[in-house]
Amino acid sequence: MRGSFVVLVLAACSSAPPPPRVHAFRLLPGQDLRAGIQRFVDEHGIEAGWIATCVGSLTEWSLRFANEPDGRRGAGHFEIVSLCGTVSRHGSHLHLAVADGEGRTIGGHVLEGCRVYTTAELVIGESPAHVFTRAQDGSTPWAELQIGWRR
Q: Residue 9: in which H helix or E strand, if any?
């Protein structure tokens, strides 16, 4: 009996972080990819998440390319071949690659204006131990990821 008590006390005092959570959802035709993701993150109070996977298609893309001040847009039918990034109710940072009917691929920083064609099936992982915020920290001119611990 005494040995059982010690194990229970040690387990209760363990400092191991809680396991990651998994969220899965689908965006419907016509929905905005970026706005839909941020709405889900906000509604579920996700503090520190990441895009685990996304498959689907778009009729419009809106991206900002590397080191460019403004975004560009395209219309047609595109497969989502990659979506990655960090998500938080404090701000998200997403990159997208899409391929056209010939397999030509284009990618960049996701802006609002990416319209779902048939579906966007997403899985988001979430760390219950962290908080992601964005702030200008002097390392670049932009608000960059700041990683903190939940209390």
A: helix 2-12
pLDDT digits (tens, 9 = 90+) for 70-118: 999 999 999 999 999 999 999 999 999 999 999 999 999 999 999 999 9
* CB count in 10 Å sphere of residue 16: 7
Q: How far apart are CA 20 and CA 70, in angstroms?
A: 35
What domains are there in the chain, each with its CATH number? Answer: 21-135+144-149 (3.30.1330.80)
Structure tokens at 82: 């990659």
- CA 44 to CA 128: how far, in whole Å? 12
Q: What is the DSSP letter of 103?
A: -
Rounded to two decimals, what is the model's pTM?
0.88
Q: How many CA atoms lie within 13 A of 105 on its CB side?
A: 10
